[in-house]
Amino acid sequence: MDESALRNVVGDRAVMRRQYAEIAGLSKLPNVTVRIIPFAAPAYRVTSGGFTVLDFDRTALPGPVVAVSTVSRTVQVLSKPKVVRQFTRRFDFLARGALADHETPAYLEQLARKV
Q1: Cα(7)–Cα(52) distance, rounded to whole angstroms?
Q2: How many C-beta atoms lie closer than 10 Å to residue 69's C-beta?
Q3: Residues 6 or more apart whose Cβ sits within 8 Å of residue 79
Q4: What is the maximum span of the chain, computed from C-alpha positions, in angstroms?
Q5: pLDDT tens profile 49-97
Q6: Which residues of 72-110 are buried (b: 16+ CB within 10 A; e: fewer)?
Q7: pLDDT tens digit sequence for 4-40
């Protein structure tokens, strides 16, 4: 999640604080990882546009696919190996620039204090 998504004010201060608390709570679940890409991270320059890398059981499909959101609110599913590699590298770059998942709750608490 990039920092701008957290800084975009929706509602009043109380609403924002509840949202931060909810995200922090979710980040503590064993099956959820929340990582934040701060503005200062080198990875921040490639955060525009949403995408998801999906990797399934290799017996059913030959490899991962990428789902990309478009401006027209549609989703394209791409499976060409070159495209998948590009998005996988992009994801890895973003992950390296993000805060460690154990830093997320404290970061959200800091944002809540500043709202």
Answers
A1: 22
A2: 13
A3: 63, 65, 66
A4: 49
A5: 788 888 877 676 677 888 887 777 788 888 888 998 998 988 888 888 8
A6: eeeeeeeeeeeebeebeebeeebeebbbeeeebbebbee
A7: 889 999 899 999 999 999 999 999 999 999 999 888 8
Interatomic CA distance for residues 65 and 34, integer angstroms:
22
3-state secondary structure (DSSP) of residue 66:
strand
Q: How far apart are CA 47 and CA 80, in angstroms?
A: 22
Structure tokens at 56: 């399934």
Q: Environment class of residue 46 by beta-carbon count within 10 Å: exposed (0-12), middle (13-18) or buried (19+)? A: middle
Token pair 């959200």: residue: 108
Give residue 42's identity as a one-letter amino acid code.
P
